[in-house]
């Protein structure tokens, strides 16, 4: 495994991290979840990403159990807050009340005294930014949270937060967690340039576009049995890539991967890691073999000619609109 700094912070993270959205506590049984975590640890992954909302809070519990007994200092555990975790009007968003209650729940479920990174899962238009940032800062001072980050915030929103943090002396955001893959490049125009200037690292999600970039979904055919596209909780988000234009172009990436001696998943993960502003690629997996396959992308270098061939194959199906980085106008 290779390691990178999380933005300009002193924290080092494994350049491939393991995330448990849709899998732990939901799509896969506990034993498979534990095997995936063990495979990640065996391959040198030290960074694990989850969220309070995943599987209605069960994902954090599963991860907490799977990591039990591992030396805490050898791990970087990341979680998030914003999406609803209960039925109440305050069980969501980034108010002082919800953040404070949510971190306590996360620490209990993860069986740890602190998380290494606490992320605002989306921007909350209903809470003053000062209130959110002050609460995060308090958690840092209490030692419950070591670093603070955001997810799917636009460049403007990140810039506003940095300004307030600098004026008020609050802890600064060190990371941004956006969707990023060969197919989804919406951060490149605005978020990445700002973050490069400000020392913020990207921890990117769905680097293989939820499985699409493995090439296992064939145009004009039903998705393979047991894959995410057939899972009721996962099929909604993957739907944007499940059309014949995208799926046929992805098939054309196969000779490029084969020519480099890489699997398709490794090519996809290696692709996001070529961006120097990326601190880590968060991979998901429903089985341990996938973890073992995908982590081999660590340290792989792709030259300019390969990157151009990928761009030529994917052409107009690549999404680049920075406006696609968005948070709900009202709390869900
Ligand atoms: N901040 C956010 O808003 C946000 C949103 C989404 C995700 N995330 C984070 O990012 C993490 C990763 O997201 P993701 O799971 O969508 O990432 P991903 O790595 O793009 O997709 C993972 C899925 O692809 C399939 N897959 C993986 N490797 C494969 C292989 N070698 N061969 C065939 N299929 C393979 C598996 O699904 P099947 O086997 O079921 O097909 C696996 O669960 C999440 O766990 C979470 O921590 C964050």
TrEMBL record:
Boundaries of every NADP-dependent oxidoreductase domain copy: 15-313
Keywords, in A-Z order: Ion channel, Ion transport, NADP, Oxidoreductase, Transport
Any Pfam family matching the protein: Aldo_ket_red
GO terms of biological process kind: monoatomic ion transmembrane transport
Protein family per UniProt: Belongs to the shaker potassium channel beta subunit family.
Protein name (record): Voltage-dependent potassium channel beta subunit
Organism listed in the record: Nonomuraea roseoviolacea subsp. carminata
